[in-house]
């Protein structure tokens, strides 16, 4: 495993991190989820990402139990706040001071830790003053319950506003967590340049496009049984945008390029996002331990300019680049 600095901070994170969205507490039984967590530890992953909203808080609990007994100082544990949790009452969502404070304390309890390394605003809250949100984060930092602050799927303008307040409050806003992969590049035009200027790194989710970039979805064929495309608990909705026949044909055409590079398609996809210097870590998920062992082999791989151009030539106009698609509800 290799490590990168998160933003302009002194915090090192594993180049590949382990996330449990759509799996722990939902799609995967706990014994299997814990086997995946152990596989991540075994291959040198130290960075673990979750959120209170995943499986309506169950994913945090599973991760907390899976990491129990590990040396806390040797891990970077990330979680998030914004989406509805619990009974989903009027204050069970958003980035108000009330919801942030209550959610943070509940997350710490579920994760079995006194602090999280990174606490992230899971989306931008248009209904709460940004100052209120950032002051609440600052108070958690000063209480020692949060070490660093991040955001997820914020626009370039929102990142700039948040960074300005973070400087005033003297708190470390260090990261953004967007979707980013070969097929989805909407952050490249605005979010990445702004993040570089403001001292934030990207911690990217869906580097293999919900599994589409593994090549397991074949054009004209039924979806594999047990795959995310057949998951009625949320996975099928998320992967649907990438299941266009033209997209699947282009992905299949990437296989010779992966073979030439000595990589599987999934490894090529993860390695691709890590070529961007503003990306600190790529989040992988897994429903089986062998997926962790497979995808982690992308760490440290360098893709030359000719290969990167060949990938662009194959994918062509199926790549989504519209910066306007980065937006909060």
Automatic annotation (TrEMBL):
SUPFAM superfamilies (UniProt xref):
NAD(P)-linked oxidoreductase (SSF51430)
Q: Report the PANTHER family cross-referenced here.
A: HYPERKINETIC, ISOFORM M
NADP-dependent oxidoreductase domain residues are: 15-314
Per the UniProt record, one Pfam family is: Aldo_ket_red
UniProt family annotation: Belongs to the shaker potassium channel beta subunit family.
From the UniProt record, which GO molecular function terms apply?
oxidoreductase activity
Q: Which organism is it from?
A: Amycolatopsis rifamycinica
- Classify the source by domain of life: Bacteria
Q: What is this protein called?
A: Aldo/keto reductase
Q: Keyword set for this entry?
A: NADP, Oxidoreductase
Entry's Gene Ontology cellular component terms: cytosol
């Amino acid at each position: 495993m290799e490590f990168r600095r998160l933003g302009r901070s002194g915090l090192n994170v594993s180049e590949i991190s382990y996330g449990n969205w759509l799996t722990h507490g939902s799609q995967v039984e706990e014994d299997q989820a814990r086997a995946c967590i152990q596989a991540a530890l075994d291959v040198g992953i130290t960075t673990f990402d979750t959120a209170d909203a995943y499986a309506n808080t169950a994913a945090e609990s599973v991760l907390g139990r899976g990491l129990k007994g590990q040396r806390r100082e040797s891990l970077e544990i990330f979680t998030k706040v914004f989406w509805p949790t619990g009974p989903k009452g009027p204050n069970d969502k958003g980035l108000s001071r009330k919801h942030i404070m209550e959610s943070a304390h509940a997350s710490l309890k579920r994760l079995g830790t006194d602090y999280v390394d990174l606490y992230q605003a899971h989306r931008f809250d248009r209904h709460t003053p940004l100052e209120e949100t950032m002051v609440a984060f600052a108070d958690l930092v000063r209480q020692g319950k949060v070490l660093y602050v991040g955001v997820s799927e914020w626009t370039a303008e929102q990142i700039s506003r948040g960074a300005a307040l973070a400087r005033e409050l003297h708190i470390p806003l260090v990261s953004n967590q967007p979707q980013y992969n070969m097929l989805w590049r909407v952050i490249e035009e605005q979010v990445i340049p702004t993040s570089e200027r403001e001292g934030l790194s990207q911690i990217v989710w869906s580097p293999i496009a919900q599994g589409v970039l593994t090549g397991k979805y074949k054009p004209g064929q039924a979806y594999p049984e047990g795959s995310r495309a057949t998951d009625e608990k949320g996975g099928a909705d998320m992967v649907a945008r990438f299941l266009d026949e033209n997209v699947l044909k282009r992905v299949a055409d990437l296989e010779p390029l992966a073979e030439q590079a000595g990589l599987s398609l999934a490894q090529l996809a993860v390695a691709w996002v890590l070529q961007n210097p503003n990306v600190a870590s790529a989040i992988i998920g897994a429903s089986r331990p062998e997926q962790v062992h497979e995808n982690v082999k992308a760490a440290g791989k360098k893709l030359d300019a000719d290969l990167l151009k060949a990938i662009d030539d194959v994918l062509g106009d199926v790549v989504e680049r519209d910066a306007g698609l980065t937006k909060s509800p």
